[in-house]
Design goal:
409 residues, transmembrane helix, 3% strand, two-stranded antiparallel ribbon, transport, three-stranded mixed beta sheet, Mitochondrial carrier fold
Length: 409
């Protein structure tokens, strides 16, 4: 384990690893024996500063900081991806005039004579009676950049960060569970496989990533449900504040109660985990592909730096490896992401609880074919690559700094 740790983290004290001797069976000695700095040749056990000795608190702080930064930076791409997938699933992004009853109830009957263009600067509006109305394609998204343009023009620049509070509420605990658990599972499994089944060691990142992601997903799933619904549905009533995480989840529960006529039933709370199967079906292979790709890339990059590793090289190697691994994993799992989004925005509680991931994928294939399965792949890949790079590199740099300034014994 010492050699694999040093390959992954070459900033480890070289004097602590230079004299590690491995016996013919491949087992490691219980204590590290190193030559004393004064050159006397005296050897003795020395403390080892390694990735494996960081506590759970340090790992969680590192991961939470990384998640915070990533959630803020890449949120617009997440909004674009969700809008494109929701539109393909049948969510209508139309003008408030299509909901004229609600508009009149809010502003009074005179509101029907207002200027109902998609934005004050739109020159494509036609006159219907006394009302200026934009054509329908003003409200149809044609691609990632078109989503950005129309959200900024119709809803305001700040709407690109719709769901950021949910993203932060989700990312910090999720990643705070995910990355530390991945580290712990990987270290334990590498120790176990090195002693008992060395041939399976290359598969350790795949298994550790899958287990850690499953645990994190099951713990924080209702917030993920709220974020998807917040990003998918836009508020058309003028002057009304969009609902937050709590209001969104309460709205889901109240809709189930009103449909079933039963208050406080178990089913009304079960709906908060609607689509978790699709989420796991997406996240487990994503993590498996991501970590099994990321580990060899970053180890190779860090081995080039060797003993000269510093914070900048650790940042660069981990960001590059994370960017490549995240992009590949996001592209490969896009169909499962489309299924996850479709299940989370389902408005019929009975159908939401009845549908399975396989049925949803078949429905997507029937409606849109291969193009439907890869709806939103551009913003998904554009989001996942930088996101994984930011999270992993920030996490590893913070660990590096903690190891330098607060070595454990």
């Amino acid at each position: 384990m010492a050699e694999s740790e040093r390959t992954q983290n070459p900033w480890m004290n070289t004097e602590q690893t230079a004299a590690v001797e491995i016996d013919r069976q491949g087992s490691l000695p219980s204590e590290l024996s190193v030559t004393d700095r004064d050159g006397t040749g005296k050897a003795g056990p020395q403390p080892q500063t390694s990735d494996g000795e960081l506590g759970i608190a340090e790992r969680a702080v590192s991961a939470a900081g990384a998640a915070f930064i990533s959630a803020v930076i890449v949120n617009p791409l997440d909004v674009a991806k969700t809008r494109l997938q929701a539109q393909a699933a049948g969510v209508a992004y139309s003008h408030p005039l299509s909901n004229l009853t609600n508009r009149m109830a809010y502003s009074g009957p005179n509101s029907m004579f207002a200027d109902l263009r998609c934005s004050p600067s739109c020159t494509r509006a036609g006159i219907q009676g006394t009302v200026s109305i934009c054509p329908q394609d003003c409200f149809q998204y044609k691609g990632t950049l078109d989503v950005f343009y129309k959200i900024i023009r119709q809803e305001g620049f700040a709407r690109l960060w719709r769901g950021t509070n949910a993203g932060l509420a989700l990312a910090v605990p999720t990643v705070g569970i995910y990355l530390p658990c991945y580290d712990i599972f990987r270290n334990r499994l590498e120790d176990f496989t090195a002693k008992n089944a060395p041939i399976t060691t290359p598969y350790v990142p795949l298994v550790a990533g899958s287990l850690a992601r499953s645990l994190a997903c099951a713990t924080c799933y209702p917030i993920e449900l709220a974020r998807t619904r917040m990003q998918a549905f836009k508020v058309t009533q003028i002057g009304k504040k969009p609902p937050g995480v709590r209001q969104t989840l309460l709205g889901v529960i109240s809709h189930v109660n009103s449909t079933n006529g039963v208050q406080g039933s178990l089913q009304s709370y079960r709906v908060l985990w609607t689509g978790m199967g699709a989420q796991l079906a997406r996240d487990v292979p994503f993590s498996a592909i991501c970590w099994s790709t990321l580990e060899p890339i970053r180890r190779k990059l860090l081995s080039v730096v060797g003993d000269e590793a510093n914070a900048a090289s650790v940042l660069g190697a981990n960001f590059s490896a994370g960017f490549v691994a995240g992009s590949l994993a996001a592209g490969a799992t896009c169909p499962l992401d489309v299924a996850k989004t479709r299940r989370q925005i389902e408005t019929d509680p009975a159908r939401a609880l009845r549908m399975t991931t396989r049925q949803t994928l078949m429905e997507i294939w029937r409606d849109g074919g291969m193009k439907g399965l890869f709806t939103g792949v551009g913003p998904r890949v554009g989001r996942a690559g930088p996101s994984v790079g930011i999270v992993v590199s920030f996490y590893e740099v913070v660990k590096y700094v903690l190891q330098k300034h607060y070595p454990t014994s």
